[in-house]
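Dear H.,

Thanks for agreeing to be a second pair of eyes. The structure we're designing against is below in token form, covering all 429 positions.
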């Protein structure tokens, strides 16, 4: 009986320590998430490719406003085929000619402006890629946090189940319990071990995903905090919706894309107008000619004839259709953004309320139920099935609390990306 009392005292002590029991994993510092984000922004290959695309567009914009290279030519003109002599006919000579093509006024400017707007479009895509990458890093990190807290809960449960198993075995040995109770505890412990293995595999997968995005070795260790305290979103939904067009870079990018399409339409319309080519020539003549071989100079201008109007009309129609397409794509982006902001905001509100419910109501009550059931079981006033059920229920609600925190922070990450606005909701950052 003395040993039984000692076991009961130890078990009750373990129960009331349940709320502070955690998995013996290394605990992350405050800057772990920031370090992951910094590594990803500095070394993620897809992001670097987007940056290079922007840089390339910038160089293309620099080159777009220049004239075509002048053309220089040298010709042997009017040599008689019977002698190829330079001093027989007055028209024989060697000519050096320089020509420069000049686009119709407005064409070069439209081409330049189109390239400049394309650079702005690529810049917006790059900035949007940064936002998207940060969102993915945060959501994966907060999923990892939920996994780690679930692992801690399972480890705690295994310790409690060991104590319950010893208590059940002791009661069975003294004739106050059944062997079925002992076997039931063993079954639940096996189930928890199975859950532990699955969670560990999920952790490896999530850690690998984070390391891949941050351009780290896939097995590089990543730690999460023991606890994340969060607060409600303080920014009104209407404010986030109103400021999105100023804060999210893709809005400015779409404005540039529209302007680019307008310039391409203008360029197509200007193609009805002819370009000109200015040229000048100097002919060197032989000194033995009857007129002492006086050299000739010449100059001229030429125009292309834009007579193929059907193809030009098709090009103009195509550019107008492209402009309409861009307008519609922008309208779709705007409505999708408004929906994403609203949906993420509402999801954040729901999950925060759920987290508060678990934190202040459900989990503390579940702990009380478990403690009361254990006390009743020790004095024979409660069934073993009720004891195990109360432990499983507590495990479920603790896990749901951690998931609620994770889901809330993931919703905030989506909200930040959709609105382009940083939102601070973590108290212990």
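And this is the sequence the design step returned. I haven't edited it by hand at all.
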């Amino acid at each position: 009986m003395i040993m039984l009392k000692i076991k009961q005292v130890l078990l009750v002590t373990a129960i009331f320590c349940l709320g502070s029991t955690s998995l013996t994993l290394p605990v992350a510092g405050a800057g772990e998430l920031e370090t992951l984000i910094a590594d990803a922004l500095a070394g993620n290959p897809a992001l670097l490719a987007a940056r290079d695309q922007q840089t390339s567009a910038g160089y293309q914009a620099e080159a777009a406003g220049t004239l075509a290279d002048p053309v220089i030519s040298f010709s042997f003109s009017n040599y008689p085929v019977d002698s190829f002599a330079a001093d027989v006919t007055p028209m024989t000579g060697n000519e050096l000619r320089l020509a420069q093509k000049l686009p119709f006024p407005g064409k070069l400017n439209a081409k330049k402006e189109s390239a400049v707007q394309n650079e702005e479009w690529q810049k917006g895509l790059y900035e949007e890629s940064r936002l998207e990458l940060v969102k993915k890093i945060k959501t994966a990190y907060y999923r990892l946090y939920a996994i780690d807290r679930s692992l801690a809960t399972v480890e705690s449960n295994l310790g409690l189940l060991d104590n319950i198993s010893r208590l059940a075995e002791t009661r069975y040995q003294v004739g106050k319990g059944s062997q079925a109770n002992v076997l039931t505890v063993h079954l639940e412990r096996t189930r928890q071990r199975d859950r532990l293995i699955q969670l560990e595999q999920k952790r490896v997968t999530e850690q690998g995903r984070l390391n891949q995005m941050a351009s780290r070795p896939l097995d590089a260790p990543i730690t999460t905090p023991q606890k994340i305290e969060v607060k409600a979103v303080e920014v009104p939904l209407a404010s986030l919706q109103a400021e999105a067009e100023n804060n999210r870079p893709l809005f400015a990018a779409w404005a540039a894309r529209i302007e680019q399409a307008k310039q391409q339409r203008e360029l197509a319309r200007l193609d009805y107008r002819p370009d000109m080519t200015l040229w000048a020539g100097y002919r060197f003549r032989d000194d033995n000619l009857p007129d002492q071989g006086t050299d000739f100079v010449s100059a001229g201008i030429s125009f292309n004839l834009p007579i193929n109007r059907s193809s030009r009309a098709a090009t103009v129609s195509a550019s107008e259709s492209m402009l309409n397409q861009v307008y519609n794509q922008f309208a779709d982006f705007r409505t999708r953004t408004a929906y994403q902001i609203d949906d993420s905001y509402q999801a954040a509100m729901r999950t925060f309320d759920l987290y508060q419910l678990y934190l202040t109501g459900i989990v503390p009550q579940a702990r009380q139920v478990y403690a009361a059931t254990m006390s009743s079981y020790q004095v024979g006033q409660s069934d073993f099935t009720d004891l195990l059920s109360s432990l499983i229920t507590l495990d479920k609600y603790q896990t749901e609390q951690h998931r609620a925190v994770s889901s809330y922070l993931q919703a905030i990450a989506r909200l930040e990306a959709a609105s382009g606005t940083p939102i601070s909701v973590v108290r212990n950052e």
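Two observations from my side: The two ends are 51 Å apart (CA to CA). The domain at 2-67+103-271+306-419 is CATH 1.20.1600.10 (Outer membrane efflux proteins (OEP)).

Warmly,
E.
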